[in-house]
Amino acid sequence: MTLFGNRSSERSADMILTGGKITTLDDKVPAATGLAIADGKIVAVGSDKDVMAWRSGETTLIDLGGRRVIPGLNDSHTHLIRGGLNYNLELRWENVPSVADALRLLKEQADRTPAPQWVRVVGGWSEFQFAERRMPTLEEINEAAPDTPVFVLQLYAQALLNRAAIEVLGFDKDTLNPPGGVIEKDAQGNPTGLLIARPSALILYSTLAKGPRLPLEDQINSTRHYMREMNRLGITSVIDAGGGGQNYPEDYDVIHRLHDQDELTVRVAYNLFAQTGGEELNDYERWVAMTEPGAGDAMLRMNGAGENLVWSAADFENFLEPRPDLAPRLESELEGVVELLATHKWPFRIHATYDESIDRFLSVFERVNGRQPFETRFIIDHAETVSPRNIERIKALGGGIAIQHRMAFQGEFYVDRYGEGSAEATPPLREMLRADVPVGAGTDATRVASYDPWVALYWLTTGKTLGGLSLYSEDNVLLREEALKLWTQGSAWFSGEHEVKGKLAPGQYADFAVLSADYMSVPPEDIRRIASVLTVVDGRVVHGDDAFVDLAPPLPPASPSWSPVNHVESPAQRPDADAPLVHARACHDGCTSNCGLHGHNHEIAWTKPLPIADSARGAFWGALGCSCFAV
User: Fold this and answer.
1) Are 272 and 292 in contact (CB under 8 A)?
2) Closest CA to 500 of 42, 16, 20
3) Could you tell me the pTM of the whole model?
């Protein structure tokens, strides 16, 4: 069966693609070989012969060469606007196989970074990806970068500062701990360089914010490079969940400039995030008077409120610390904001890690809905421990759940605190799908998890962390097409665009990715290596590589010239993608038996908080298998 739009004799396709393996996610035509595109939308899907009926002398023809094509990926919870402003400043440790390699990259970047700038490693990595299965030490960081300030963020848990950073920040014996955080000090009372979220990550983010910012022109360049990185991964749309320090409208200037110059290569729907504790209602009263959901167009639009509605509701997802008890004032503060939003028909989303928090939030929502019925969607973000009962309550109120792959980065710590059994459904994906509640997938990038959707799809379809720990029972692992639907159709609901996004069908936006490898058939471990070789947004090519490199639009070099983007291949560029997952490492327990393929697991089992039986700790394979999983 072939689906056509209304073919007229006057209208031909702007672009026709043939010879592909196209996963449409459309039940009417689930698979095809050809696509025809006109005016930024799909006009025909089906066989090569059928879509070629739309050809004219002006049509661009592209031979897909048998490659897999998917609808453009849509990250339903990320922080592209903030991430774009800082992308050119940040050194990425995604996919770095060892502490030694991470430190080498750190030293090289420190040597090229001019004063007063810092070297920043902010998110996307886990200590369990390293062959050594550990964090770099403060001593190693100081040795790698003795003179340039360094800030290394580990999850929501802690940050490492070198001595140069301590000095420029002015931390000393008299520096007090901020609320919810600890500045570690040595026996003499001097800061060591370790900042600990206990449990609030505000100490980490407020310190990061003290680093120098890029000037406006470099922020524009940085955002363009970050969007191109998204395009390399097949991302065509995102929903930006706001962020601390991201004030509206001031901090949206860059994204609006790029929109006005027709330089956006990712569709962005953005939420407005309350900035100051105790002033949240004032923020939203002001914003309700300034803008409205849907303001903008198909490339850049306002999406509603959140993910922070009130600061008293912030249940920090730091699994190295106990679950926080939220303040008694939460309900009264949240109720006023939610009632305002419901009255003005604003969609909203709220950060919620733990079921205990979600239970309290839903009680507020139910009370408000009883007085002022919700007429639009709301979103529970994260929901790692949401219960079946609260999933049903979310559904009854017309809400959805946006899930991310944070457990791929924190799963080992969660297991250590709460046990293997508790981790088997974190989040309870299958329960959500059985309940038929809207579910969208995303990353929550960039400060903790990677922005790489293929790491998320790997986690969804294997249940494994970056360190190779299998978290889930078979029932909570998704089929590949199920996971892809969450990243496309599922996410489109969260911006109210499910009628025009998420499938490759006539009338839908012409947003799609041609993949470097066949997602539907590659071995599971190779999912993490997939990228896009051709990405199209609104019917325009925004990224091309491999056979399609000549179609790629130009992009100026990253600025400033010392940016890591100019010197280190990005995660999406898949450095050494064809190399086997092999590494050698020293065994830190003094063992002299060396295996260049597998390394050793002794120190992993003895020193890391993993669910390993005592009887297995001395064995070669241990409970997790060999260290190849660290790559």
Assistant:
1) no
2) 42
3) 0.91
